[in-house]
Amino acid sequence: MQYLDADGHGLGFDPFKAIVAPRPIGWISTVDGEGRPNLAPYSFFNALASKPNMIAFSSEGLKHSMKNARATGEFVFNLATRKLVDAMNQSSFTYADGINEFEESGLTMTPSIAVKPPRVAEAAAALECRVVHQLDFVDLDGQPTDAFLVIGQVVATYIDDAFLKNGRFDAVAAGTIARCGYRDYAQVTDMFELLRPTDGGEFRG
Q1: pLDDT tens digit string along 21-33?
Q2: In sequence order, what are the residues at sequence separation of 6 or more whose Cβ sits closer than 8 angstroms to the Cβ of residue 67?
Q3: For the segment 48-106, what is each residue's pLDDT rounded down to a tens digit?
Q4: Whether 136 contacts 143, CB under 8 Å
């Protein structure tokens, strides 16, 4: 099938998020202006640049994490893994202002070293960030879409030593998970190495 998005897909479910998949999960911790912690997962998330390292997450609707990150200029990305999937899912619930999602999800807060938001102590890795860019999305007609973006520069990194092997972070051992559209998720269970032509790799077509 092929269609213009303006005409609609005619399917029972929108395929967009399933096509752009798997996507890393931005499990974002923030604090509000009163210092109250917040934790929530975002499936519109990814790494954007290195040297310096930068990551971004976006929110459909100006939700707590987005408001907090914009107001305070800081957030933490916590790695979502299979071991923590139920806690991650629970933290997606729409709680009232001031409710601590760490506590509601049975997680432990631990201090970050460079920013005010705490990180998830049980997470295999975390990236502490300061906001460098923010954007309100508009559509092709210049109309607001109620979607918002922040880009953060990584200023500190945490890695559980148990998942460092030969100088590399082992995503398989950590059980990293990803979002695949609908209510589907994937777990990293297998890796393969592919050398680029500039690395001396050979085309095997």
Answers
A1: 999 999 999 999 9
A2: 32
A3: 999 999 999 999 999 999 999 999 999 999 999 999 999 999 999 999 988 999 999 99
A4: no
Q: Is the separation of the CB atoms in 140 and 146 below 8 Å? A: no
Tokens of 50: 């290195």
Q: Could you tell me the domains of the chain?
A: 21-199 (2.30.110.10)
- Candidates 176, 185, 168; CA nearest to 123 is 176
User: What is this structure's pTM?
Assistant: 0.95
HSE toward the beta carbon, residue 37, CA cutoff 13 A:
23
Please provide residue 32's backbone torsions phi and psi, each rounded to the nearest 5 degrees. -90, -175
DSSP state of 46: E
CA distance 36 to 205: 55
